Every structure is written in structure tokens, then in C-alpha cells.
Amino acid sequence: MEEEKSVEIPETREPLREQGSIRTLLELLEQQGMEQEKGDVLRMADYIDSMETQLGTVLKELGEVKNQLSVMQESKTKRFAVNTIQKVEHQVETLRSQVGEWKRKFVERAEQAVFDLKEKGKDALATAVKGMHLTQGLQKIQSSLHTVMLSMDQKIDRLGNMAEELHVARGHLKNAFWEMNGKDTAKITERNPEQGMIFQTQKVLFQSMRSIHRLEQKTERLQQQIGKLEERQGKTISLKDTLQELRQESHPLKSGKEEKQKAAVR
């Protein structure tokens, strides 16, 4: 069976914070003195860049080890290792697609935020920035990261188990051959788990798993930051509403007082 080609990693582009509508939005937020919202947008833009870069690095490392395996002699071990790498590549590609979709929606919301400021004013801009959080998408990404990390961990174990089984099987076959030829059998030696193609494959998978775990932690921190920000924004909105209600309640009282004063003059 023909092996899949390694995934090509696109060249690094300028940071998202420097691109089109995101840059325009950041400038508008600064002009409006909305530093909190500006920081919020910057965090999310940098998060997307970090995710894309790290996932690209993981795919590059997986591709490199697959290329190394491709020049090795055909064997059951090699086929199992290559198949494992290809499955992980597919999982990481799916993750990168999810991040790409989240990024697309993020940019669309940024464009909407710029439009809302021009059409509806500052309050609409704050609401639009809040809409850029896309919390459901973040939760989905975090869940996918965790799933991929667990899957990698399982694959590392399976590679080790498979290598151990093959090592023992080879020992038994060798002993069976010696026995058939009337020679003494040998004790099956322990396999050195830190050498050979299986170890190299496990090593890359472990590095990838560690990278995915860091991304999961970063996603969780971003969600927590967004949660705190939305909580503060909710309190601010609630305070504004309360003040507005108090003002509305004070107007009738004031009007009633003025009527009494007018009646007294008459």
C-alpha cells in the first residue's frame, strides 16, 4: 500500500493582530478608550496564532518521523508505526480545521464590530466584542484537544505492547528453530524499550502529546479569562441599568413636586 505524503506546513504569516479587520478594530477600541476590550481581542488573536503555530509544528514533527520510517525495511513493526503516525496526523489536522473555523468566525465578528461602531455607536461595539468570544467554539476545541491527547497516550502504550509481543514472538520462533535442529534453546532476553523505530515513534508522539496538553491548558486559561471578563461586564451593565431605573423613578417625583409648587403659587 502506498504511504501518504507528509503534510505540508504553510509558511508563517503576519500575526493576526496585524491583519485587516482585527487591526482596524484594535485601533478603534484604542480611540474609544476601551482598553479592556482591546486586551480581550489581543488575547484571542494571539491565542489563534499560537494554536496554528503549535499544531503546525506537531504536524511537521510527525511528518519527519514518518519520512524516517519510510526508508526502513518493510516489517510489521514499520507498518504499525506508520499507520499510528497517520492516524495522529489526521487527528491533528482535524484540530487545525476546528481552529481555522474558529478563526474565520472571529474575523467575521471583528468586521461586524467595526460596522456596529460606525452604525450604532460605542455601546454596540462593546456588545460586538463580547460576541467575539465564541465560547462554544472554544469549549469544543478544548474537548478535542483533550481527546487527541488521550488518544496519543493510548497509541504510545499500544506501540510499546506491540513491540514487546513481537520481541517475545521472535524469541519463541528462534527457540523453536533451535529445538527442531536438536540444539539448546535460549532464554528470551528483555527488550530494550529505548531503542529502535518503535522508541523513536513513541518519542515523537510523546512530544506531540505534551504540545497538545499545553494547548489544552492555554485554551482553559483563555476560557477562564473570558468568563471573568464577561462577569465584570455583566456587573457593569447591571449597574448601568440600575442607575437608569433610578433616574426614571426620580423624574415622576420631581414632576409631582413641581406641580405642588405651581399649585401653591396659584
| Beta-strand residue percentage | under 5%
Mean pLDDT: 78
Based on secondary structure, the structural category is mainly alpha
Low-confidence stretches: 1-12, 237-243
Q: Which geometry do the CA atoms define?
A: elongated
Radius of gyration over C-alpha positions, nearest whole angstrom:
30 Å
Number of structural domains = 1
Which assembly state applies to the chains in this document?
A: single chain
- Major sheet characteristics: none
How many β-strands, per DSSP? 0
Distance between the termini: 104 Å
Order of helices and strands: HHHHHH
Count up the helices.
Answer: 6
Proportion of residues in helical segments: over 70%
Structure description:
Residues 246-266 are annotated as: Disordered. InterPro entries: DUF6674. The chain is mainly α and 266 residues long. The chain has one domain. It is built from 6 helices and no strands. The longest helix is centred in the last third of the chain and has 70 residues, at 196-265.
